[in-house]
Amino acid sequence: MLKEKALELLNEAFEERPDLYLIDFKMGASNDMKVIIDGDNGVTLADCVFVSRAVEHNLDRDEVDFSIEVTSAGATTPLELPRQYKKNIGRTLEITDREKRSETGELISVQENGVTIKWKARVPKTVGKGKMTVEKEWSPSFEEIKKAKVVIKFN
């Protein structure tokens, strides 16, 4: 009952703020709710407070004891929804598909059913000795992607 009511309240909050969306919702045995959200323009502390209050202020603690924690998807959290890829265009992603192929490259586009990344690779020359640098692309579909995460670079 509490879980259903909390999810209903979360949906209402996301209708009010369509730039935010739910990534994960977990409820522990002692009514501990953990909500992970993301947003088209990132997530601020105010966004987390907004979502938390949308649930907290509409449930009666006298009826049932609960706690709620609202957090944003972290920088190293794998991307879960197609919607999350759009805000990461231009960033480096590491993508692994269901066949265990893994590539790291710049996310250059997001289509309705998948993404395209590109990267530079050193390959043997077709004639003669040595290697040459070529640009490669890969366009896995969302169904093929097992795991995708943003690669954080420190310069």
Write a brief structural summary.
The chain is an alpha+beta fold.
Number of helices: 3
**Class from secondary-structure proportions:** alpha+beta
Question: Helical amount among residues, as a percent range?
Answer: 10-25%
Average pLDDT over all residues: 93
Number of domains: 2
Form type: elongated
User: Regarding CATH, which class of the largest domain?
Assistant: Alpha Beta
Give the number of DSSP strands: 8
The CATH architecture designation of the largest domain is 2-Layer Sandwich
CATH topology of the largest domain: GMP Synthetase, Chain A, domain 3
| Strand line-up of the largest beta sheet | 7-6-5-4-8
Oligomerization state: single chain
Pfam families: RimP_N
Protein name: Ribosome maturation factor RimP
Subcellular location: Cytoplasm
Domain Ribosome maturation factor RimP N-terminal: 26-75
